[in-house]
Amino acid sequence: MTTEVTPNDPLPAPAETMKGFRAFAELVLRIGSSTKTNVKLDALVQYFHGADDKDKVWMIAIFSGRRPKRVVNSTQLATWAVELIDLPFWLFEESYGTVGDLAETIALLLPENPQEVAKAEPLHYYIEQLMHLGRQSEEARKYFILESWQEMGFAERFVFNKLITGGFRIGVSQKLMVNALAKTVKAEPSVIAHRISGNWDPSTITFSDLLSEEAQATDYSKPYPFYLAYAIEEPELEGLGAPSEWQAEWKWDGIRGQLIKRNNELFVWSRGEELMTEKFPEYGALLDQLPDGVVLDGEIIPSVDGAPLPFALLQTRIGRKNVTKKQLQEAPIAFFAYDLLEWAGEDWRTRPLSERRAKLEEVVRAAKHPILLLSEAVAFGSWTELAELRKGSREKGAEGFMLKRKASTYQVGRKRGDWWKWKIDPLTIDAVMIYAQKGAGRRSNLYTDYTFAVRDGDKLVPFTKAYSGLTDKEFAQVDAFVKRNSLEKFGPVRTVKPELVFEIAFEGIAASNRHKSGVALRFPRISRWRQDKKADEINTLEELKQLLEVYGTPPPAPPREGGER
To answer: Which residue ranges does the record assign to the ATP-dependent DNA ligase family profile domain (predicted)?
Structure first.
């Protein structure tokens, strides 16, 4: 049945375009159905050659995480779909639980359009309509979405729903999109990567302005694309050559960021291209200490007296719109600088690391401020000596070492050869699985999200969740166990017999009054299935808290007089 509603305010008229929303929907499905890089690259290049310029801008924005604000919540979307297809809600929920994705569930359940979709509105039309609906009534939103569903085929409905829910997880790296753009506009990928970074608005910027050198010159906040490292193992070190050709630094656990001063303004960017200046007001003290036209690459880290503190302290400030004075005092931060990307307004990325490092040291010394620290270069004469020093990483508050070739330039994205990360082994603990839930996407039919517990006397205390680390075959085996050994069902969660033991690996541990166990883990994942162990052989809560005492986050340092660090 069709629910009859009437909008209370007219929506903007669609723009004229040669290519429609269907082209974008087909691009998303084509990319999602292939694991081959060349197939994805060809699909992106083909789209860029044929799409409307405004659609190109929005495609770049969506694929790089710049999505419009949600105007419809999941409950509303599900309710309207159920009304339209006249389906019992319990059956819709069962379908959703099986499919594992709301956008796909609705697209599958909506009746097929009996006629060929006649309309060919562009991508930007639907996005602009959704943005406009943010100022309209719920009735107007419902009218537009129901009308759109009835004008679309499966592919368009699926992608349209993804736009609404904001749930895009497309298998396209920033590097792949940059390479496709570079092929389209005949420019170097490194140039393209820089031009599409930063704080631009897809609803106002044109495709030509986005990629133009002139527009880049007027955006004083624009960061550079980050250079990322691959992991290396100890046996591979000898293949790097002479230790004298390399610079070793501690690998800090914080938020990778760029500190930018241009036009007498200060900007702070995260690696995820989030402008975070307001979240770290302490850095405002550097506005008068740094020269104009300088960009520093480094790590945002909780710190007192030049020593890094555990990342968990920083988490108290992440995601908050307004940082309170108490939070500033309890989680003081510093910027550990380890590279210089721009000096006196000139791009220094093509200069060797040795030259960039020398200038960086000058900049930090000249600033003379405790909030700006130089990331220490660790002296070593052999790889064996460095391996010994690495054993003390946790005592330094580090995750291991970064290895950088002294002659290296500052590249774009993750590259092999010149930068490596050599992390220490994670902390581990043996635990038993007590709850299971179905996954999402291709794992939506399998129980792949697990909750684990440790022993506390005769009780089992849950302490973490994990959903990665097993092979597809192992996930299938655990799924079969869950289905055979479920004890209770709470919505999508199954309680299971506490029999399967797993080794859980994690990078850090912190005290937490939000968790029943009293601890919170950083980056927990399954490191292996301990089929050689029984449930009564798992670790205890006491042993978990012993790890907390040795490696955990200390309580926040009391603020000094005057609120200084």
So the answer is: 326-456
Catalytic residue among 162, 222, 251, 404: 251
What total of structural domains would you count in the chain? 3
| The two three-digit tokens of residue 203, written as one number | 């609803």
What does the pLDDT read at residue 297? Answer: 97
Question: What residue has token string 């996930």?
Answer: 475
Cα diameter, the chain: 77
Is residue 151 classed as helix, strand or coil in its secondary structure? coil
Cα 123-32-131 angle, rounded to 5 deg: 25
Q: Is 345 contained in some domain? A: yes
Residues of the domain holding 331: 227-423
Query: Do 267 and 337 fall into the same domain?
Result: yes
CB of 102 closer than 8 Å to CB of 77: yes
Q: Which of 298, 433, 428 is nearest to 363 (CA)?
A: 298
* 308: β partners: 303
Q: Is residue 170 part of a domain?
A: no
Q: How far, CA to CA in Å, does 125 sit from each of 17, 134, 160, 293, 546? A: 10, 15, 11, 39, 57
Q: Does residue 8 lie in a domain region?
A: no
> If we measure between CA atoms, which residue out of 454, 409, 24, 446 comes closest to residue 225?
409
pLDDT for residue 555? 45
Q: Which two tokens stand for residue 175?
A: 């590097």
Task: Give 484: exposed, middle or buried? Use CB within 10 Å, 0-12, 13-18, 19+.
Answer: exposed
Beta strands in 239-317 (DSSP E): 246-252, 255-262, 265-270, 294-304, 307-308
Cβ-based neighbours of 506, under 8 Å, separated by 6 or more: 426, 427, 428, 429, 464, 521, 522, 523, 524, 525
List, for residues 148-175, the tens digit of each pLDDT value.
998 888 889 999 998 888 776 666 777 8
Write the pLDDT tens digit of every residue in 454-494: 999 989 999 999 998 999 899 999 999 999 999 998 878 89
- The CATH number for 531's domain is 2.40.50.140
SS3 content of the chain, % helix, strand, coil (to 5): 40, 25, 40
Tens of pLDDT, residue by residue over 82-112, are: 999 988 988 888 888 777 788 889 999 998 8
Tens of pLDDT along 238-260? Answer: 899 999 999 999 999 889 999 99
Continuous segment of H or E residues that includes residue 347: strand 346-347
Tell me the pTM.
Answer: 0.72
| 439 and 411 fall within a common domain | no
Answer for the pair 173, 225: CB distance below 8 angstroms, yes or no: no
Contact 347, 218 (CB under 8 A): no
The pLDDT-based confidence of 319 (bands split at 50, 70, 90) is: low
Q: Is 516 a catalytic residue?
A: no
